[in-house]
Amino acid sequence: MINFLLKGVLRDKIRSVLSLIVIFLGVMFSTIMVGFMAGIFNDFIRVNAILDAGHLKIMTRAYDELSDMAPNDLAIIGVDSIISDLEEKYPELYWTPRIKLGGLVDIPDENGETKNQSPAIGIGIDLLSPGSNQAELLGITKSLVRGRLPESFNEALLSEEFSQKLGVDPGDKITLLSSTMWGSFATYNFVLSGTLRFGIPAMDRSTLIVDIEGARLALDMDDASSEILGIFKDELYDEERSEEIKSDFLGRQEMSEFGLLMIALRDQNDIGLLMDRADIYIAFIIGIFVFLVVLVVWNFGLMNGLRRYGEIGIRLAMGETKGHVYRTLLIESSIIGVIGTVLGMMGGLSIVYYLQEVGIDYSDLLGEANMLISGVMRAQITPGTYYVGVVPGLFASLLGTALAGRGIYKRELSQLFKELET
Amino acid sequence: MGKIVVEVKGLIKDFPIADRLFRALKGITINIAEGEFMGIVGPSGSGKTTLLNIIGGLDSPTEGTVSVLGLSLIGKSNKELADLRKNGIGFIFQGYNLLPVYTVYENVEFPLLLLNVDSNKRDKMVREAIEWVDLSDKIKSKPAQLSGGESQRVAIARSIVKRPPLVIADELTANLDAKNSHRIMKILLGLNKEIGTTFIFATHDEKVMGYLSRIISIVDGKIESDKFFDRNELREKV
Questions:
Q1: What integer best gives the mean pLDDT of chain B?
Q2: Which ipTM value was assigned to this complex?
Q3: Which residue ranges make up each domain of chain A?
Q4: Residues sharing a CB contact under 8 Å with residue A249, sequence separation 6 or more, in sequence order
Q5: Do the chains contact at B91 and A317, CB–CB below 8 Å?
Q6: Chain CA centroid to CA A360, Å
């Protein structure tokens, strides 16, 4: 009997192939949707954390109040010892100093006269100290367009767009005009080692990246930094642990102007609010999408069941009980649902994985946007991507079949035969 | 007269139509003996299909008693009625109602699968049934590849493959031409003669009536006549 029913499933293309295709597509799109939504949001969080906010950030209380102006005169002093202490107490995070600087990048001609000049946003990053992973973490290696990474503290990187605007190439000299930590005028010559494309329009316009030691020399910030960023080693924001570390750290700090303040990612730039709302929005969007997929799959299951009234009538006439017919319908639907769901999840997860690794480059569309949003949209495999497809794939098709089968089950047998004859 | 296989007494069947009841059968009483080759005839709406449905355990009476193959159908559960159909009754429908995705062999095999007949015996019975209806060359064909007459012959093979004591056929020639109708009736008459199955037809086809040895005429839910015919000469020929 099982073989007989199996033959029926395999030969009836609407029951097998078409059902599988509908379930496969429903599950696959649901999986992709979840992966894509999670990817976009988490990428936004990750980019913000790695580039600017950290999962935790330390600065002086005074710096925090004026942080929009990058006031390096209020920077942290004694950074090396603070980082050693942080690494010992909170080893699950990378702790790294950052110097934010504003100024002008001046391009001299062969006579030393200004050939070109433009405002720049500079970042001093720990690129060169042994064991530093900042270049990799920030994707600098992958973002290199021309030249190479800095090999000494007096070498610098510019965004490709900015270098073209200034008309400089790797190997050219560039001069940073800014102010030191102590308020005096600072000029410092770097050699351009390479150019980068971040894929983040706000950064691609006018960014200068130098090693932290180069920035310290340029701005006279010995053993100092604007901020210290803490980033979880798995790059995933652990909100609960962040709050624990923050409380622990703050409990040991002075409340003075130059006392250290630690803030978590969610405390910065309304990211907390965004995170809270995003969870609701994402759940809402995914909910609507999955509901629509459920409707399609459910309806297909229902139609498929109704289409088989004739077959069911015959089977009942031959002496099969209603319960047996009903059970076989559900078993068939379950088997097709499971196969479709597994295939759909495999298809969906493969696409999510591809989009996670490669992404979709839409930086051209971002234009002049100032947000720290990656120009490459990426999906992300999350726990949700493993189970969201089960709802439309298995439950919806089963529900459709169950309802269609229930209709048959409830019908008077003679009525079923009347329908059979028409 | 042989053993009674169908006994109907004072059968009344009402159907609700809108807010009132329509009485389709008005006190039918008949007995059908084992091995009969008989028909219930009458115009459309006379109640013959309703009577057949009740005898086949597909519908229940409003009043009266019905006993089929020694089993009273009154108050029986769906499972008990399904068992009766599975073991004792074969059905032939006007529209053939073959399962389209299965071959001729598989369609005929289906009733035996429900009875859990072992595979060797099943194969023998299926091939024999297909041979009875002269379709051995179409054994692997699908219903869509068959003509109307061939499809109805497959339906006949399916109905008799389990050798049921009773076969119920509702307007089985309605979709067939004269040649195929005669061919099918001859096959059924031959089976009736060979394996002793009781056949009950619902029909208003004159060609079918010509083969029946008993014709009960129903008009407006009541038996109008119950006549017996001598078909021995015809039986000898098949």
A1: 91
A2: 0.85
A3: 2-47+274-421, 56-236
A4: A58, A89, A90, A260, A262
A5: yes
A6: 12
